[in-house]
Amino acid sequence: MPDSEELQKKSAGAAKWSLATEVIVKIISPISQLVLARLLAPEAFGMVATVTMVVNLADMFSDAGFQKYLVQHSFRDKEDLHANANVAFWTNFGVSVALWCLIAVFNDPVAAFVGNPSLGFPLAVACLSLPLTSFSSIQMALFHRSLDFKSLMPVRLASTLLNFGSTLALAFMGFGYWSLIVGTLAANVVNAVGLTLLSEWKPGLFYSFDLLKAMFSFSGWTLLESFAIWLSTWAGTFIVGHFLGATELGYYKTPITFVSGCFSIVTNATTPILFSSLSRLQFDRGEYVAYLRRFQFVVALFLVPLSAGIFIFREPLVALLLGDQWGASTLMFGLYGLVQGPMVLLSYYSSEMYRSLGKPRVSTLVQVLFLVLMAPLMTVGAMRGFDAVVWADTGSRLILIAINQAVTHLVVGLSFCRTVWALKEPIVCTLAMCAFAWLTYGLVSDSCSGVALDIVGCIVVYFAACLVLPRSRGVLLKLVRGDGFKLH
Questions:
Q1: Is the pLDDT of residue 486 over 70?
Q2: How many CA atoms lie within 13 A of 335 on its CB side?
Q3: CA nearest 155: which of 181, 189, 128?
Q4: Can you give the pTM of this predicted structure?
Q5: What values do phi and psi take at 64, rounded to 5?
Q6: Whole-angstrom Cα distance, residue 469 to residue 350?
């Protein structure tokens, strides 16, 4: 078991670099999306969402859960780690090439199955991402395992900038959804080359079926879990596209993309750190629970008010970020934002707990149960129209939170009531912010400058309330000093 103090220091350093990277990337990404939302029609985003759904499914099967295994498992030494990395790499690469060949050959039937028969050739081109990502996924896992997020920063920024530049250039030239596909491929090339050059481990000519069998005892459940997550993540996309069409799919998926981008500044920076750290602490129950609680508290300080703020200011945010043609997506934008913070804290982090304890089958069962409940709910909603889909989507996410909290209590022994009580300060401060917005928003909603000042006022009220409460004040002061993620 690693020394707790050493792990705290590594977590703090990792968080700084990971958060810095995500902040920069998420500043670039919304700018790109803001421009693209005005250059491309909702149908283009709906078509790309369909392509992405298929690519993500194939990519999940090619990875087969090896990334999680390399992060979570305890190896004898570096040689043993690198041997397992070689087996994971060549298995990943072989499966990804095979899947790409199958999709390329049967591109038209696959496109017709997912509801867009005209997307056969674009789908085959987009799936070139599969062999490209196989060149970087194992290296990424090794960097995460060692909490070395500093080395990932230049590659992540370079790929994001290339994606940004190439996508916008092609969109201005009138290439429609092809601009999004080509931009993604360009970013994947940079990731593949950059991470391979930076990684201490390089693919070697070694393979062992015995190691593959040992890895798959863990990764098999992780693969099933990933498939269940893919189904639950993309079932809504498939259902909306099938029942309502590409335009409504754009209204449904684009708000999810934008709002997720806001939250991923924090979640992408912290979730790999949480999983790696909990995996190292899995044999010390006291340290494990204490670390998890403190981690949730720090993240909640930012995600709880963000969720409330997105819902309160959903109309001006949609007008600003997407433009007038996206007015139909306003309710989806607001409700998805409202539930996303609780989803991260009470659902996503639960999945990281199961995997860090070597119990991916628990997360798999959670996802299967959720899918059984979510799919009919979304189908009924889609049959009744777009607004019904929005409410069904929100309800399904609340169901997932409830399932995860029940399972967390049964499997890990953590009480939902104690979890919420531990987060009482961010919740109370957010309620104070909401009260301020309730009093002021109606007075300024007709003016862009008034709304902007109201948003600033909400931020000031929230952090002023945080500074009054002792634990929130202490964490914020640590973050200002740069050591908040030491979580003492």
A1: no
A2: 17
A3: 189
A4: 0.66
A5: 55, 25
A6: 27
